Amino acid sequence: MMESGARVALVEDDDALRDDILVPGLRASGYDAEGFRSPIELYRRMLVVAFDVVVLDVGLPDEDGLSVARHLRSSSPLGIIMLTGRGQAADRVQALGEAADAWLAKPVEVEVVAATISSLLRRMRMPQAASPVAEAEHSALRWRLLAQGWRLAAPSGREVALNRSERAVLECLFAGDGEPVSRERLIEALGESHDEFDPHRIDMLIHRLRRKSVEQLDEELPLRSVRGRGYVLVDHDDG
């Protein structure tokens, strides 16, 4: 996947912001960008076009942007960036906790949107290291990664879809073979620079994985924090 020419969908109900600023600006940055006023328009277009990244406004007329993000995340591995005019930290936590890969507050410069897309695309195209636990049950862990790491399966057999960040973190934890994995190693697995990475994002990812496991798999993911050492995925029965 190349950054230049990547297909980007922008869902924004502010016509002037969408058609006069963001879409032209993204095209000038080299992206094949299309604008949509509503989620329905996006869904119809996605029947014939596969997008690499979707940029979503949180406040949309027909469907809440977070609801759209959850739907897209459950059905596609594309990248998701949220735009919101709400400046509270809780909105950022909710957006990243639900399904988004990145979050931007409006007003936002088109150059910032383009740079965020570029960063996300670089993370998306990073090769994933082969994992001996993918597609097979680990000898010590009864939790499994399936579909090349895109789905997490619980001991019960229930499965849930993962986004790229969740997949990268879980593959790193599974590869730890029951030993703690440092926060620095998890940041590397996400393809991020230590200096530029928001340290709270790891915590949000871990929180999201735990919550997703309980809500969608009806089981507690045996993911534990080890003070001063990072995180470890332990055998479910060892709780």
What does this protein structure show overall?
This protein is of the alpha/beta class. The chain folds into 2 domains: 7-124, Response regulator (Rossmann fold, 3-Layer(aba) Sandwich); 144-238, Arc Repressor Mutant, subunit A (Orthogonal Bundle), CATH 1.10.10. The chain is 40% helix and 18% strand. It has helices at residues 15-28, 39-46, 65-75, 89-98, 110-124, 164-175, 183-189, 200-217; strands at 7-11, 32-36, 53-57, 79-84, 102-105, 144-146, 151-153, 159-161, 223-226, 230-233. Helix 1 (15-28) packs across helix 5 (110-124) and helix 6 (164-175) crosses helix 7. The longest helix has 18 residues, at 200-217. The radius of gyration is 18 Å and the shape is globular. The relative contact order is 0.11. The model is unreliable at 127-141 (pLDDT under 50).
